[in-house]
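Reader question, answered in our methods column.
A reader sent in the components of a multi-part assembly and asked whether the whole thing could be modeled at once rather than chain by chain. We filled in our standard form and ran it. Here is what they sent:
COMPLEX SIZE: two components
ENTRIES:
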Amino acid sequence: MDQQAVLFLIIATFTGLSAIAVLVSQNIVRAAVWLLFTLAGTAGVFFLLGADFVAATQLIIYVGGILVLVVFGVMLTAQGPFITMKVGAAEWVIASFVGLLLLGVLVTSLVGAFNFRTPSPEMTSAEKSLSSAELGQVFLGLEGVTPETNLTGLPEGARPAPRQRVSYLLPFEIVSVHLLVVLIGAAYLARAKRRRGAIS
Amino acid sequence: MIPVGLDSYLVLGAVLFVCGALCMAMKRNAIGVLMGVELVLNGANINFVAFARYNRTFQIEGQVFALFVIVMAAAEAAIALAIVLNFYNNHLTVDVDTAEELKG
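And here is the structure of the entire assembly that came back:
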Protein backbone atom coordinates (compact mmCIF):
# COMPACT_ATOMS: atom_id res chain seq x y z
CA MET A 1 0.00 0.00 0.00
CA ASP A 2 1.50 3.28 -1.01
CA GLN A 3 1.81 6.42 1.00
CA GLN A 4 -1.14 8.23 -0.55
CA ALA A 5 -3.54 5.37 0.16
CA VAL A 6 -2.51 5.31 3.82
CA LEU A 7 -2.91 9.07 4.10
CA PHE A 8 -6.29 8.93 2.37
CA LEU A 9 -7.55 6.20 4.68
CA ILE A 10 -6.50 8.11 7.78
CA ILE A 11 -7.93 11.46 6.66
CA ALA A 12 -11.12 9.98 5.19
CA THR A 13 -11.87 7.97 8.33
CA PHE A 14 -11.27 11.06 10.46
CA THR A 15 -13.49 13.24 8.27
CA GLY A 16 -16.32 10.73 7.97
CA LEU A 17 -16.41 9.91 11.67
CA SER A 18 -16.40 13.61 12.55
CA ALA A 19 -19.32 14.19 10.16
CA ILE A 20 -21.27 11.35 11.79
CA ALA A 21 -20.45 12.83 15.20
CA VAL A 22 -21.89 16.18 14.08
CA LEU A 23 -25.08 14.33 13.24
CA VAL A 24 -25.42 12.29 16.43
CA SER A 25 -24.25 14.78 19.07
CA GLN A 26 -27.17 16.37 20.86
CA ASN A 27 -25.14 19.18 22.38
CA ILE A 28 -24.88 22.03 19.87
CA VAL A 29 -21.50 23.19 21.17
CA ARG A 30 -20.03 19.69 20.71
CA ALA A 31 -21.55 19.55 17.23
CA ALA A 32 -19.72 22.79 16.41
CA VAL A 33 -16.42 21.28 17.56
CA TRP A 34 -17.01 18.14 15.48
CA LEU A 35 -17.83 20.39 12.52
CA LEU A 36 -14.43 22.03 13.01
CA PHE A 37 -12.74 18.62 12.72
CA THR A 38 -14.80 17.77 9.63
CA LEU A 39 -13.85 21.00 7.87
CA ALA A 40 -10.17 20.57 8.73
CA GLY A 41 -10.29 16.98 7.46
CA THR A 42 -11.87 18.19 4.22
CA ALA A 43 -8.98 20.61 3.81
CA GLY A 44 -6.64 17.66 4.28
CA VAL A 45 -8.48 15.78 1.52
CA PHE A 46 -8.00 18.79 -0.77
CA PHE A 47 -4.28 18.85 0.00
CA LEU A 48 -4.15 15.14 -0.82
CA LEU A 49 -5.84 15.82 -4.16
CA GLY A 50 -3.20 18.39 -5.07
CA ALA A 51 -5.53 21.39 -4.82
CA ASP A 52 -3.33 23.49 -2.57
CA PHE A 53 -5.07 26.81 -3.10
CA VAL A 54 -8.55 25.40 -2.51
CA ALA A 55 -7.33 23.68 0.64
CA ALA A 56 -5.79 26.88 1.97
CA THR A 57 -8.97 28.78 1.15
CA GLN A 58 -10.99 26.10 2.92
CA LEU A 59 -8.85 26.47 6.02
CA ILE A 60 -9.00 30.27 6.01
CA ILE A 61 -12.67 30.81 5.13
CA TYR A 62 -14.37 27.76 6.60
CA VAL A 63 -12.29 26.99 9.67
CA GLY A 64 -11.29 30.58 10.31
CA GLY A 65 -14.41 32.43 9.25
CA ILE A 66 -17.61 30.44 9.01
CA LEU A 67 -16.92 28.35 12.09
CA VAL A 68 -16.23 31.45 14.19
CA LEU A 69 -19.53 32.83 12.89
CA VAL A 70 -21.34 29.61 13.85
CA VAL A 71 -19.75 29.57 17.31
CA PHE A 72 -20.77 33.17 17.87
CA GLY A 73 -24.30 32.26 16.79
CA VAL A 74 -24.30 29.41 19.30
CA MET A 75 -23.05 31.67 22.06
CA LEU A 76 -25.53 34.46 21.33
CA THR A 77 -28.50 32.07 21.36
CA ALA A 78 -27.27 29.67 24.06
CA GLN A 79 -30.02 29.74 26.65
CA GLY A 80 -30.13 26.62 28.82
CA PRO A 81 -32.74 24.48 27.01
CA PHE A 82 -31.46 25.23 23.51
CA ILE A 83 -27.97 23.83 24.04
CA THR A 84 -29.24 20.25 24.08
CA MET A 85 -32.36 19.57 22.10
CA LYS A 86 -33.47 15.98 22.34
CA VAL A 87 -34.70 14.04 19.36
CA GLY A 88 -37.06 11.12 19.89
CA ALA A 89 -36.02 7.48 19.43
CA ALA A 90 -38.56 6.88 16.67
CA GLU A 91 -37.07 9.78 14.71
CA TRP A 92 -33.62 8.26 15.13
CA VAL A 93 -34.82 4.93 13.72
CA ILE A 94 -36.53 6.55 10.72
CA ALA A 95 -33.57 8.87 10.10
CA SER A 96 -30.97 6.09 10.19
CA PHE A 97 -33.11 3.96 7.87
CA VAL A 98 -33.55 6.81 5.37
CA GLY A 99 -29.90 7.79 5.68
CA LEU A 100 -28.59 4.29 5.04
CA LEU A 101 -30.98 3.96 2.11
CA LEU A 102 -29.79 7.26 0.61
CA LEU A 103 -26.14 6.32 1.18
CA GLY A 104 -26.71 2.93 -0.44
CA VAL A 105 -28.34 4.49 -3.50
CA LEU A 106 -25.55 7.05 -3.85
CA VAL A 107 -22.71 4.57 -3.41
CA THR A 108 -24.12 1.91 -5.71
CA SER A 109 -24.73 4.48 -8.44
CA LEU A 110 -21.35 6.18 -7.99
CA VAL A 111 -18.93 3.29 -7.75
CA GLY A 112 -17.71 2.24 -11.16
CA ALA A 113 -19.81 4.82 -12.99
CA PHE A 114 -16.77 6.73 -14.27
CA ASN A 115 -14.09 5.22 -16.47
CA PHE A 116 -11.32 7.67 -15.59
CA ARG A 117 -10.50 6.00 -12.33
CA THR A 118 -6.78 6.72 -12.25
CA PRO A 119 -5.20 10.13 -12.66
CA SER A 120 -3.93 10.78 -16.15
CA PRO A 121 -0.15 10.22 -16.19
CA GLU A 122 0.71 13.83 -16.90
CA MET A 123 -1.10 14.90 -13.74
CA THR A 124 0.64 12.58 -11.30
CA SER A 125 3.82 14.63 -11.14
CA ALA A 126 3.67 17.60 -8.82
CA GLU A 127 4.91 20.22 -11.29
CA LYS A 128 2.12 19.41 -13.74
CA SER A 129 -0.68 19.85 -11.23
CA LEU A 130 -2.63 23.08 -11.29
CA SER A 131 -0.80 25.91 -9.56
CA SER A 132 -2.44 28.85 -7.91
CA ALA A 133 -0.89 31.12 -10.56
CA GLU A 134 -2.83 29.30 -13.27
CA LEU A 135 -5.96 29.52 -11.16
CA GLY A 136 -5.46 33.26 -10.88
CA GLN A 137 -4.95 33.54 -14.64
CA VAL A 138 -8.26 31.76 -15.22
CA PHE A 139 -9.97 34.19 -12.87
CA LEU A 140 -8.31 37.10 -14.69
CA GLY A 141 -9.72 35.90 -17.98
CA LEU A 142 -6.44 34.98 -19.69
CA GLU A 143 -6.87 32.43 -22.41
CA GLY A 144 -4.52 29.56 -23.04
CA VAL A 145 -4.67 28.25 -19.50
CA THR A 146 -7.48 25.76 -19.91
CA PRO A 147 -6.18 22.40 -21.12
CA GLU A 148 -6.60 21.38 -24.73
CA THR A 149 -8.35 18.06 -24.46
CA ASN A 150 -11.46 16.44 -25.81
CA LEU A 151 -14.56 16.36 -23.71
CA THR A 152 -15.20 13.14 -21.83
CA GLY A 153 -18.49 11.44 -21.18
CA LEU A 154 -19.58 11.31 -24.81
CA PRO A 155 -21.35 8.16 -26.02
CA GLU A 156 -19.36 5.45 -27.76
CA GLY A 157 -18.55 6.25 -31.39
CA ALA A 158 -19.41 9.94 -31.14
CA ARG A 159 -17.11 12.44 -32.80
CA PRO A 160 -14.69 13.78 -30.15
CA ALA A 161 -15.61 17.33 -29.26
CA PRO A 162 -12.78 19.68 -28.30
CA ARG A 163 -13.12 21.65 -25.13
CA GLN A 164 -13.95 25.36 -25.37
CA ARG A 165 -11.51 27.86 -23.95
CA VAL A 166 -13.15 29.55 -21.00
CA SER A 167 -12.39 32.19 -18.44
CA TYR A 168 -14.11 32.99 -15.19
CA LEU A 169 -13.69 36.74 -14.89
CA LEU A 170 -17.39 37.58 -15.04
CA PRO A 171 -18.52 34.92 -12.51
CA PHE A 172 -15.74 36.10 -10.22
CA GLU A 173 -17.02 39.68 -10.37
CA ILE A 174 -20.62 38.54 -9.90
CA VAL A 175 -19.73 36.47 -6.87
CA SER A 176 -17.77 39.32 -5.30
CA VAL A 177 -20.66 41.76 -5.73
CA HIS A 178 -22.99 39.07 -4.40
CA LEU A 179 -20.85 38.71 -1.31
CA LEU A 180 -20.93 42.48 -0.74
CA VAL A 181 -24.72 42.62 -1.11
CA VAL A 182 -25.17 39.65 1.22
CA LEU A 183 -22.93 41.14 3.90
CA ILE A 184 -24.79 44.46 3.79
CA GLY A 185 -28.07 42.55 4.04
CA ALA A 186 -26.79 40.46 6.94
CA ALA A 187 -25.63 43.55 8.82
CA TYR A 188 -29.04 45.15 8.23
CA LEU A 189 -30.93 42.05 9.38
CA ALA A 190 -28.88 41.46 12.51
CA ARG A 191 -28.59 45.07 13.65
CA ALA A 192 -29.46 45.88 17.21
CA LYS A 193 -32.92 47.38 17.29
CA ARG A 194 -33.71 50.06 19.79
CA ARG A 195 -37.00 49.56 21.51
CA ARG A 196 -39.41 52.46 21.29
CA GLY A 197 -39.14 54.59 24.40
CA ALA A 198 -35.83 53.12 25.49
CA ILE A 199 -33.11 55.52 26.51
CA SER A 200 -30.80 55.87 23.53
CA MET B 1 -7.52 -3.95 -0.59
CA ILE B 2 -9.28 -1.61 -2.98
CA PRO B 3 -6.87 0.92 -4.49
CA VAL B 4 -7.62 4.54 -3.70
CA GLY B 5 -9.12 6.17 -6.76
CA LEU B 6 -11.87 8.52 -7.76
CA ASP B 7 -14.52 6.22 -6.28
CA SER B 8 -13.03 6.48 -2.78
CA TYR B 9 -13.29 10.25 -2.83
CA LEU B 10 -16.82 10.10 -4.22
CA VAL B 11 -17.87 7.74 -1.42
CA LEU B 12 -16.39 10.12 1.16
CA GLY B 13 -18.34 12.97 -0.43
CA ALA B 14 -21.51 10.85 -0.31
CA VAL B 15 -20.98 10.14 3.40
CA LEU B 16 -20.64 13.86 4.12
CA PHE B 17 -23.69 14.61 1.99
CA VAL B 18 -25.89 12.06 3.77
CA CYS B 19 -24.73 13.26 7.20
CA GLY B 20 -25.52 16.84 6.24
CA ALA B 21 -28.93 16.00 4.81
CA LEU B 22 -29.91 14.06 7.94
CA CYS B 23 -28.52 16.89 10.07
CA MET B 24 -30.76 19.36 8.23
CA ALA B 25 -33.78 17.13 8.72
CA MET B 26 -33.24 16.09 12.33
CA LYS B 27 -31.72 18.97 14.29
CA ARG B 28 -34.23 21.12 16.09
CA ASN B 29 -31.72 23.89 16.71
CA ALA B 30 -31.61 26.33 13.77
CA ILE B 31 -27.82 26.54 14.01
CA GLY B 32 -27.66 22.74 13.81
CA VAL B 33 -29.58 22.95 10.54
CA LEU B 34 -26.98 25.46 9.33
CA MET B 35 -24.21 22.98 10.21
CA GLY B 36 -25.99 20.39 8.07
CA VAL B 37 -25.94 22.78 5.12
CA GLU B 38 -22.20 23.26 5.58
CA LEU B 39 -21.67 19.49 5.58
CA VAL B 40 -23.64 19.09 2.33
CA LEU B 41 -21.61 21.84 0.65
CA ASN B 42 -18.38 20.21 1.82
CA GLY B 43 -19.42 16.88 0.35
CA ALA B 44 -20.12 18.56 -2.99
CA ASN B 45 -16.77 20.33 -2.80
CA ILE B 46 -14.92 17.04 -2.30
CA ASN B 47 -16.59 15.74 -5.46
CA PHE B 48 -15.59 18.85 -7.43
CA VAL B 49 -11.94 18.69 -6.42
CA ALA B 50 -11.77 14.92 -6.93
CA PHE B 51 -13.05 15.32 -10.48
CA ALA B 52 -10.55 18.13 -11.02
CA ARG B 53 -7.81 15.69 -10.06
CA TYR B 54 -8.96 12.64 -11.96
CA ASN B 55 -10.38 14.13 -15.15
CA ARG B 56 -8.09 16.39 -17.12
CA THR B 57 -11.04 18.10 -18.83
CA PHE B 58 -12.22 19.50 -15.51
CA GLN B 59 -8.76 20.24 -14.16
CA ILE B 60 -9.54 23.94 -13.83
CA GLU B 61 -13.32 23.90 -13.49
CA GLY B 62 -13.30 21.60 -10.50
CA GLN B 63 -11.15 23.91 -8.42
CA VAL B 64 -12.85 27.09 -9.69
CA PHE B 65 -16.30 25.78 -8.82
CA ALA B 66 -15.05 24.61 -5.43
CA LEU B 67 -13.87 28.16 -4.73
CA PHE B 68 -17.24 29.55 -5.82
CA VAL B 69 -19.00 27.10 -3.51
CA ILE B 70 -16.82 28.20 -0.59
CA VAL B 71 -17.65 31.86 -1.21
CA MET B 72 -21.36 31.06 -1.53
CA ALA B 73 -21.20 29.09 1.71
CA ALA B 74 -19.68 32.08 3.48
CA ALA B 75 -22.46 34.34 2.19
CA GLU B 76 -25.12 31.80 3.10
CA ALA B 77 -23.75 31.33 6.62
CA ALA B 78 -23.69 35.08 7.22
CA ILE B 79 -27.26 35.64 6.06
CA ALA B 80 -28.58 32.52 7.84
CA LEU B 81 -27.02 33.54 11.15
CA ALA B 82 -28.47 37.03 10.76
CA ILE B 83 -31.92 35.49 10.23
CA VAL B 84 -31.45 33.15 13.22
CA LEU B 85 -30.42 36.05 15.46
CA ASN B 86 -33.39 38.09 14.29
CA PHE B 87 -35.71 35.16 14.97
CA TYR B 88 -34.15 34.71 18.40
CA ASN B 89 -34.62 38.38 19.21
CA ASN B 90 -38.29 38.22 18.27
CA HIS B 91 -39.28 34.82 19.65
CA LEU B 92 -36.60 34.06 22.30
CA THR B 93 -36.07 30.57 20.88
CA VAL B 94 -34.02 28.87 18.15
CA ASP B 95 -36.26 25.81 17.90
CA VAL B 96 -37.24 25.45 14.25
CA ASP B 97 -40.38 23.54 15.22
CA THR B 98 -41.83 26.71 16.70
CA ALA B 99 -41.18 28.77 13.57
CA GLU B 100 -44.62 28.23 12.14
CA GLU B 101 -45.91 31.75 11.57
CA LEU B 102 -45.91 31.25 7.81
CA LYS B 103 -47.61 27.86 8.04
CA GLY B 104 -50.73 27.72 5.90
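What stands out: Residues 103 and 109 of chain A are 10 Å apart (CA to CA). Chain A has a mean pLDDT of 82.
Send us your own complexes using the same form.
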